[in-house]
Amino acid sequence: MSSPLPTPRSKRQFSTDRLRRHVPILDWSRRYDRTTLTSDLVAAVIVTIMLIPQSLAYALLAGLPPEMGIYASILPLLAYAVFGTSRALAVGPVAVVSLMTAAAAGKIAAQGTPEYIAAAITLAFLSGVMLLAMGLFRLGFLANFLSHPVIAGFITASGILIATSQVKHILGIQAGGSNLIGMIGGIVAHLGDTQLTTLAIGAASLAFLFWVRRGLKPLLRSAGLPPRLADLLAKAGPVMAVALSILAVRAFGLADRGVAVVGDVPTGLPPLTLPSFAPSLWSDLFVSALLISVIGFVESVSVAQTLAAKRRQRIVPDQELVGLGASNIAAAFSGGYPVTGGFARSVVNFDAGAETPAAGAFTAVGLSLAALLLTPLLFFLPKAVLAATIIVAVLSLVDLSILRRTWTYNRVDFAAVAATILLTLLAGVEIGVSAGVALSILMFLYKTSRPHVAEVGLVPGTQHFRNIRRHRVETDPAVVTMRIDESLYFANAAFLQDLIYDRIVCDQPIRHVVLMCSAVNEIDMSALESLEAINTRLSELDIKLHLSEVKGPVMDRLKRSHFLVELSGEVFLSQYDAHTALTAQAQAAE
Amino acid sequence: MSSPLPTPRSKRQFSTDRLRRHVPILDWSRRYDRTTLTSDLVAAVIVTIMLIPQSLAYALLAGLPPEMGIYASILPLLAYAVFGTSRALAVGPVAVVSLMTAAAAGKIAAQGTPEYIAAAITLAFLSGVMLLAMGLFRLGFLANFLSHPVIAGFITASGILIATSQVKHILGIQAGGSNLIGMIGGIVAHLGDTQLTTLAIGAASLAFLFWVRRGLKPLLRSAGLPPRLADLLAKAGPVMAVALSILAVRAFGLADRGVAVVGDVPTGLPPLTLPSFAPSLWSDLFVSALLISVIGFVESVSVAQTLAAKRRQRIVPDQELVGLGASNIAAAFSGGYPVTGGFARSVVNFDAGAETPAAGAFTAVGLSLAALLLTPLLFFLPKAVLAATIIVAVLSLVDLSILRRTWTYNRVDFAAVAATILLTLLAGVEIGVSAGVALSILMFLYKTSRPHVAEVGLVPGTQHFRNIRRHRVETDPAVVTMRIDESLYFANAAFLQDLIYDRIVCDQPIRHVVLMCSAVNEIDMSALESLEAINTRLSELDIKLHLSEVKGPVMDRLKRSHFLVELSGEVFLSQYDAHTALTAQAQAAE
């Protein structure tokens, strides 16, 4: 491709393009019109209704005061609207990240202390800086090392953990426990303390929310409502539960009868807060912040990609990192805690017609109004109702079918999923997801360290070569051809040597060994040295080593080494050439 | 293969075979005769002469009393003779492992304290248990993750570190420092304290040893000695230096003039010692012991393999782990410290004609005699002479050409070597080698996460398909064929999706996408889900997805999923079939 020489004008053009790439709002805002505004406003109203109870509930899950959930749903959304690329992603507090925040901050201080809150704010800051750095250094690919089954297993196990952690609020008891067994033990030990009024409210909310999810939508549709409206009304279930329960608690004075309520929620816009800059806290939170960043990014980018694909749009993963990074930094400076793009909320935003990130900004305005006007009403909101909304939301994340699917398809993936689920449940979210990632990588390395190698022969009447164990093929006793089904690199260099030496020991008349390299995408320095050793060893035994079907980039690199000079045999373009030449040579020698 | 039904006799036979595999001495001792005995005895005498100064010197390097070097050269050799498979490997203290021992024990206590000695003994025990466990669980493949360049870089950097650490003994000064800069700083700071008599002895020894290595052999050969004898006499250089220096120190009373000498070395056979079983010490030494085990195993197995190959013998890596494990456990119970197979010593053993591991047992007898008879003579041995033998030995390990070779061949390998060398020199052996391994693995994963993908077309007049960017090929605007040069797995699943979506966006008339899978050796669950997503997305755009040249094992697995049912297109056996069918279809549609 040729491009004109840069003139002052095209340079300016270039830097404007670049600015637009890093600040996407400059791009989409130029085409913003009244139609788009209407779509975005409608979506924002619906998401706001959904987000108010969620933000309170997830703050409860994170062990933080309810207003921090609201604060985390204001400035972070504005920041994402400026820097994010997804048209439909709804950023804010989400269940899994809230659980991870609780786990990380819980290692620093006890829930309810100022140190705990400071840890959560600092976590948002660190996570924001990491996301931003990953975006600027284009490290988004790191998220690829979380395999789909590991993510699925982690989300499922987190869902189970989160649901279990909320049972105490439904029962109105005090119970601790940081893993599944501890939580269940705590619940069983305090079962006698169950607060019956709280249980009644909690159970009723659960039943109501499940019914809204399963039963309301069909009912509304059979009542003649259009499907989208029915769907959206069903999403308002949690807000209805919140409103009804507040009314009930006020009317019957249930707060005086022992029902735990949210209590005083400060009225007003988010305060300016500062993360801690204590190096010891940073080092204590480093790994947790990294895990929160990566998990948050993966969750967010997968929903953003799915939604973008439906409208044939694209998102830019590295710019998404910048967007989420900016959101988390905004959360840290405005009394919030780690946020990311939520799955359910984004789908609602998309279905409601959000066309640009401005929908998120309007949602932030909605939440600001809630912070200014609605907080006094929240005093009597029972914690049991928030717990019920969490349980109903996260149970939809639980999908154990991944175990069956991986078991059928690939035992290696199954092992990774099973380990992730078990360790997340029993040892906590951080150990669970780290072990899943480590196990996936180790098993991939193990697999590539013992590659599939087939001894091949010519399929009669063709120029094709196939595995001698699977097909009826022609071979020459003096020529052994091995097709190596893997790149050659340090982890399998020794394996290759062993394999060839073993093959040579057992058969005596061999004069030629051909390595068919059609699936060898790389030969690194270790493998090169192994090939050199094989070549020397075979020469001593008066056996020639040949290569065939070496790929262009691999050949380019081999030419830079001495290997081709020292090679006792030849490099054949095709395996058929090798076969023809060597068979003739072997027969002439007889 | 069919095998007869097991009878009581063949069962017994089987268990005897199995016992012989795990205790190789039962195998080779049956064929032991007088000729073999003579060869082994000659080799043992020569290795003993070489090992006496080495065992003292390496104990000095490890910061341990000299007798521990001798003890580490007795029982461990007997243990290896029973359990090892290499005919020529000479086990005992070696330079790199001694340095690693000093680094690990130095983290626990100061040199010269009983705690330091206990840490070294415990390190031998832990390392022995780990090696044994790796052998029994067949985890020898783990050593493959140390790439050749990383090992080469690590050995080179260790050689530089070791040589530098000995300079203080040559100068007769006290100087500390745990990394290269610290050591050089320490030497420069104390240069004024240089003990001139010590320096004279040290410099003379260095000059003598270098001359023996470079000049003596040619001299002896020109004097008419046969090459092997000349070579072996040259190997006795360190023993001559030791003997001469002891005589000089005694004759001129140099010990009273400030020359540091070895001093009292207890006379007698190795004492029974016990490793510590304190859990805190175990956890402190765990990582160090693991690194010592792996590095020791890699060093040992590579020399054993090289030597075995010269006589067309084989060693069994997993059994070698058992042999080295037994040696290290023996070291822990007999006052020794971590041992492994040494490179230089094993080559001497091999050249001297060692035919079975019995040569090692005879060497142990030689060292026992030294422990009983020679220790009083060692009182006046100057430490500077031991330091000189170490420096001369390790400088032969230093080979910076690996930097140039990797730079030419493969920048990824170069980065791993450079990082290993720099970090070993500046941050220590443990961080250096760990970083090298981690970097190699990460870069391999990164590379496979962005595989080479070529869009291919038909080479006219053939059935071959080549990269459209490198060759003049035939293509159909309605058919896009992508050849993927890598297994598809979690780390590149997202990459594949992005790649195909990008390709689809820019060209409109596409009706068929073919993925040519000739180099795809594996499709894991994550990649399967990506393929399903691609299939769905393309279907929405009315584009069919096809596969071609799918390998047998990959196809077997795909058949266990729903993917083939949902696939919008077909699976073609060869790319040519795909081309013929789809081109015809596309033309018919026009």
Your description of this structure?
The structure is a homodimer of 590-residue chains. Chain A is built from 25 helices and 8 strands. With 590 residues, chain A is mainly α. In chain A, the strands form 2 sheets. In chain A, strands 4-3-5-6-7-8 form a 6-stranded mixed beta sheet. In chain A, strands 1-2 form a two-stranded antiparallel sheet. In chain A, helix 3 (34-61) packs antiparallel against helix 15, helix 8 (148-171) packs antiparallel against helix 17 and helix 8 packs antiparallel against helix 20. At the A-B interface, helix 8, helix 18, helix 20, helix 21 and helix 22 of A face helix 8, helix 18, helix 20, helix 21 and helix 22 of B.
Summed up, the helix count of chain A is: 25
Total strand count of chain A, please? 8
- Average residue pLDDT of chain A: 87
Percentage of residues in DSSP E strands of chain A: 5-15%
The description of the largest β-sheet of chain A is: 6 strands, mixed
Q: Portion of residues in helices of chain A?
A: 55-70%
Multimerization state = homodimer
Q: If strands are numbered along the chain, what order do they take across the biggest sheet of chain A?
A: 4-3-5-6-7-8
Q: Largest interface, per-chain counts?
A: A-B, 62 and 64 residues
Domain STAS (chains A, B): 469-582
Keywords (chains A, B): Membrane, Transmembrane, Transmembrane helix
Main location (chains A, B): membrane
Membrane topology (chains A, B): Multi-pass membrane protein
